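User: Thanks for the earlier help. One more: L-lactate dehydrogenase (cytochrome). Can you show the sequence and predicted structure together?

Assistant: Of course, both are below.
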Amino acid sequence: MSLISSQTVAEHATAASCWIIVHGKVYDVTEFLPEHPGGSKIILKYAGKDATEAYDPIHPPDAITTHLPKNKHLGAVDPTTVVKVKKEVTAEELRRQELVAARPSLDEIVNLHDFEAVAKAILPAKAWAYYSSASDDEITIRENRAAYQRIWFRPRILRDVSTVDWSTTILGQKSSLPVYISATALGKLGHPDGELNLTRAAGKHGVIQMIPTLASCSFDEIVDAAVPGQVQFLQLYVNRDREITKRYVQHAEKRGVKGLFITVDAPQLGRREKDMRMKFVDESGVAKVQENQGGVKKDEGVARAISSFIDPSLSWKDIPWFKSITNMPIILKGVATPQDALMAYDYGVAGIVLSNHGGRQLDTARSGIENLIEVVEALKTRGPWPNPQFEVFVDGGIRRASDVLKAIALGAKAVGVGRAFMYSFCAYGQEGVEKAFQIFRDELQMNMRLIGARTIDELTPDMVDASAIHSHVGLTPVDNLYNTTYQPLALAQFKTKL
């Protein structure tokens, strides 16, 4: 096949005939313009030019090849004739680059809050807004953190804690930490390698990674980056088109994924106002990971635009269907009540995640750790506890090994950590994630010795005092480190005079 010159591509730079170059290939996206969730404006900006640099951070590599009809794949561009869009370096970007160069060394990072502080300083404003935002008044995201401060340890003494072991199993799979990497979307917004930072670090250290549906890297790219025997789970947003979902799930199982975490708390994505105010989609485009959908909100931030395919009709009646299409253990991610925990058990799934989506969905929803106590009591009515056939996980607000130990003592099998690991690679790449693992190990060793638990199995409810967990007002100590990185919401701003 003959190469296409950049001059030929440049002749197709209008809404009536729009060609772009992505990774050295030419695509006719004319008919796709009205359907692009980021609006046609961003594509037209690159019409007739190389759009790879704008495309990469917010699309899986195979998005365009998967979702654009084959007859719109026009061929390869002649690399000697490519005209790239000249990128203007703004004063803001120069300042950001200076901050990147002035980052503290990894040796100076002593806790997970440090990663967040560095990420907040060096991330582009729109990326930080997407990652850090939560719904409405952001009460729940703050409560996720505060809830752990209302639980107090009751340490045991005079036990031989010369050796402590924090390894465990999660859904029968070995894990070097009682922590798994929870799914977070669009990793390339914060680092060119995106989710691959997590995959490579997790493979090196025996930590389990949950692969997000809305990753910047493709599913196969992430799986291909794993080392032999590395355990990975899949987080699933359910598509309106069940055939797409079926193919995706069965492909994941064939590739060796060991658990399916179905997100059940997002029939519609929450209003994340920091993200919405950035008008991210209007200016910079956004990932479209599955099917083209009309009626997409294009002025309410990246979260709304990337979620247009999610099926709000998902219900309990779909659980038997999921069990029929896969042999992977199924976990429902986003359970919040004892009633739904019991229904999940009765429907025969393998477990649940007590989660409020990192505070990004229903604001003033209770924290997962608070719900854990009532859920465990309810599950005890179904048989012996712990139950090897049904595991309970918690995520949201975890920044310390002490948080992990509190959750396990109250009945969680393990915990999910999302933002903290994401901020670690945004700040320092793969090495940042590895340092985050080391921080957890150091804190686990210290805290397990101090509370007198030599293994994860020795963490029991009598080691914690959770009697104040339901008190949402009172003298909870101020979490200074968290409050330092938390960015308060802002109101609408007046236009500045030119």
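User: Great, one quick takeaway?

Assistant: Confidence is low (pLDDT under 50) at residues 280-296.
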